[in-house]
Amino acid sequence: MHPFHPGCGRQFEVVTIRQNWGEDLLFYTGPTGRLVSVPVGWTDWIEPDPVVVISAGRSAFRLNDLLELTRLVATLEEEATHGR
Question: What's the half-sphere exposure (Cβ side, CA atoms, 13 Å) at 51?
């Protein structure tokens, strides 16, 4: 699990993986017996992002997350420039 997730360090049995709202979610049975979901990217179910591997744990961000952030900042700057 992601280092900030309460389930970090625990093992669990995967129930299913589904795409919801454009993101792959991993579902597992939580401690209360209810179905819980987390983004697949928060788990070791998939191969780690190459940026995370190369940075040897020094990077808290994945390449796709940083690219999305730059797109968001550019959009906000464009809107601010045009007085929206």
Answer: 9
